[in-house]
Each structure stands twice: as C-alpha cells, then as structure tokens.
Specification:
Helix content is about 70%, strand content about 0%. The protein is mainly alpha-helical.
C-alpha cells in the first residue's frame, strides 16, 4: 500500500474550501508558491515537510491528509463547529467554551 497523493490532494482542496481560502492563501500560509500548492492539490508527490506545512496551514493533523476520516465515524456537525471555532481569535474561543459549559449545566439542571 503506497501513499495516494491524489486522495491527499482531494483532502487538501476540500479542507481549503471548508476554510473558504484560496490556493494563494493556502500557499502563503504554508510558505510555498501558489503553483506548487495547486500541483499538490492535483496529486503531485510532495515531501513530509511539505505535508506538515500544509497541515499547519489547514489546521489538520497529518493522519487526516494521509488516510482521511472514516466516514462511518464522521460527524459533519462537529466538524463544522470545529472549523468555525478554529477561525475565531483566542478570546472568542474561550467565550464559546464557557458558553457551552454553562449551557450544558443549564440543560442538566432542568432534567
């Protein structure tokens, strides 16, 4: 079993679209040319170093790019929430977490 660079490229493109960024934005975040980022999205072979830069730029772990998410266990709602929270500044992230904790306690108190 070899590395499927086409699938890696598809995952990169999908994640980039979820984050609503362009290939140029991704390339800038990852410190590479837009042409190279586009080539990787289309399945070009790349180094582990490049994969790691892309992981950091996309806010994902290497296992996501390499093997993807098992659709059987995928939860689109949680993925969407994680993506939205990931885009927030630290102060807003903390507020969201505190709200969820408060709301969970309110729900527990009422049952």
């Amino acid at each position: 079993m070899g590395i499927d660079y086409m699938e890696i490229g598809k995952r990169i493109a999908m994640r980039r679209r979820v984050l609503e960024i362009t290939q140029a934005d991704l390339a800038e975040r990852a410190g590479m040319s837009t042409t190279y980022a586009g080539n990787v999205e289309r399945g070009a072979k790349c180094s582990i170093d490049t994969l790691m830069k892309l992981c950091l730029a996309l806010g994902v772990t290497p296992d996501y790019l390499l093997v993807g998410i098992n659709k059987e266990y995928r939860n689109d709602t949680l993925d969407e929430i994680k993506d939205l929270i990931h885009q927030c500044e630290p102060k807003k992230k903390k507020m969201i977490i505190e709200f969820i904790k408060w709301y969970a306690n309110v729900e527990t108190d009422q049952t």
